[in-house]
Specification:
This protein is mainly alpha-helical. The chain is built from four helices and no strands. Helices cover 72% and strands 0% of the residues. Bound molecules: zinc ion.
Length: 89
């Protein structure tokens, strides 16, 4: 039985802003890091966010609308599918 429930990509993305801001409680951070460890798409998103912050000095995930999140999930889907294709003989 898992005491820590795994999060999905949508939750991970919504946590990443606070994570980079250092505002995420330790428990949430653990869950996010656990997800990141197994999810290339969210790792890529994290790196992108980090680069954005370096460039702009700002984090904008709170500004993400549902529509923007949906778009992001589409990108993730494609990302995953491309990865699968590589793995297919
Ligand atoms: Zn993910």
């Amino acid at each position: 039985m898992a005491l820590v429930k795994d999060i999905n990509c949508r939750e991970a993305v919504s946590l990443i802003g606070n994570y980079l801001d250092g505002r995420l409680p330790r428990r949430e951070r653990r869950r996010l890091e656990r997800h990141l460890a197994g999810c290339d798409a969210c790792q890529a998103y994290l790196e992108q966010m980090r680069a954005t912050i370096i460039l702009t000095g700002q984090v904008g995930p709170e500004d993400l609308s549902d529509q923007a999140l949906d778009d992001l999930m589409d990108v993730f889907e494609r990302f995953r599918r491309d990865g699968d294709e590589d793995a297919t003989p």
